[in-house]
Design goal:
- By secondary structure, this protein is an alpha+beta fold.
- 20% of the residues lie in helices and 36% in strands.
- It has one helix spanning 71-89, and strands at residues 10-15, 22-26, 29-40, 46-54, 65-66.
- Strands 1, 2, 3, 4 and 5 form a 5-stranded antiparallel sheet that branches.
- The chain is elongated.
Length: 95
């Protein structure tokens, strides 16, 4: 049966450690990026976007930001994907 199944998305959310967080601006408002959303693409590659909260406080908009090309962020994404894969592989079913 597994060959007949179509899985459309695999995604994980990863908390960015304090030391790796950064600030970016969108529509004139500064955001501190605290979370990564990492997706497994159909071809096996990973894609990631960053999300965060306005520096000035408040809820702000749910806006995605590109992830900078920094080795420590790449390592975080790779490690998180590996950990998620291990957790999925060890699942114990529903209930």
């Amino acid at each position: 049966m597994s060959g007949d199944l179509e899985v459309s998305a695999l995604a994980i959310n990863v908390t960015i450690p304090e030391a790796l967080r950064w600030t970016d601006t969108r529509r004139g408002e500064a955001f501190t990026l605290t979370t990564l959303n990492v997706r497994l693409l159909p071809d096996g590659r990973l894609a990631a976007k960053a999300y965060g909260r306005p520096v000035g406080g408040g809820r702000g908009a749910y806006v995605s930001f590109p992830v900078p090309d920094r080795p420590e962020l790449t390592d975080l994404i790779d490690s998180a994907a590996g950990r998620a894969g291990a957790l999925w592989a060890a699942h114990r079913g529903l209930g």
